[in-house]
Design a protein that fits this description.
13-stranded mixed β-sheet; 8 helices; 13 strands; globular
Length: about 300
């Protein structure tokens, strides 16, 4: 058994096939690496960790160093994603051994916590993970939002945006107490993910005053997972405009559990509201737990 990084074309191809078979067994209209361009992109990137046996990759997880930025400080963390084990090697403890390697890697890099998304809570609890943060899922029936259709939010090709435009999007994005830092260059690359729509609202001075991102590759179909707007009513206009333009009967919006006035207004127009943990986290070294409790990670940053 050997812990490796896939550096050759052959290794990356085997890695992507393993991830696809484990997480996306149905045929996809695009390579799975295009869904995760920053961590599975071509080239000798350092974010894939694999267990290899006889030159065959049998287990994989991404280890993506990021930084939590809050109102008081910044904390280095790592996102864990695309966790997969070859079906012929499941149940033999390989994933536990891989996570032991990730723990060691985190300590060597002074990473304070590991963060991941999974429904396998019992498995990850055994590895030391626990739920952190709170995410609200608001479900909307577009017919009931017909009165909010405004025509303000229009589809925009991200390739047409300048660096200043991307900065404006980050400036408009809904403020949260604790989230992940994202550079302009990373933002540009992430908006290249297939099956994702960017809708932007401009004010009378032709300045960006709102936006929504809907869809993200195979994940988050019909889900607005990142947004910014002037007020709750403005966001509802965006939801209604997008639903009308795309012909959706229903749209889900992910929102942080912060800003009670926003949630109250948004909830009043929704068909249902669900509160759930934002992610799973494992503390590696000393960290202010309140930062994790207040943490909200936008869908574009999750893996």
């Amino acid at each position: 058994m050997q812990l490796i990084k896939p550096t050759t074309t052959h290794q990356r191809k085997n890695r992507d096939l393993l991830i696809k078979n484990a997480l996306r067994p149905e045929e996809l209209p695009f390579p799975i690496a295009e869904e995760y361009p920053l961590v599975l992109g071509q080239g000798d990137n350092p974010f894939s960790c694999c267990i290899s046996i006889s030159d065959k990759i049998i287990a994989h997880a991404n280890f993506w160093p990021r930084t939590i930025v809050s109102e008081s400080n910044s904390i280095p963390v790592a996102l864990i994603g695309n966790v997969a084990t070859d079906k012929d090697y499941q149940g033999r403890g390989y994933m536990r051994k891989l996570f032991q390697g990730l723990d060691q890697k985190a300590r060597e890099k002074n990473i304070h916590a590991l963060i991941l998304w999974s429904d396998l809570h019992k498995f990850y609890q055994k590895l030391g993970f626990e739920s952190v943060g709170t995410e609200i899922r608001l479900r909307y029936k577009i017919k009931k939002l017909s009165g909010y259709i405004s025509g303000k939010y229009q589809p925009i090709d991200p390739m047409s945006l300048s660096e200043r435009d991307f900065k404006s999007l980050l400036d408009v994005r809904h403020h949260v107490k604790s989230t992940l830092y994202r550079s302009i260059e990373e933002f540009k690359i992430l908006t290249s993910i297939p099956a994702m729509g960017l809708f932007i609202s401009f004010n009378q001075s032709n300045q960006i005053d709102g936006y929504c991102l809907i869809g993200k590759g195979y994940d988050m179909m019909g889900v607005i997972h990142e947004w910014g707007s002037q007020n709750p009513q403005h966001l509802l206009q965006g939801i209604a405009d997008i639903g009308d333009l795309l012909g959706y009967e229903e749209i889900i919006v992910l929102a942080p559990a912060q800003g009670s006035n926003w949630i109250e207004v948004l909830s009043n127009q929704s068909a249902s509201v669900e509160r759930q943990p934002m992610a799973l986290a494992k503390v590696i070294s000393d960290i202010d737990k309140s930062v994790l409790d207040e943490l909200f990670i936008w869908g574009l940053d999750s893996i």
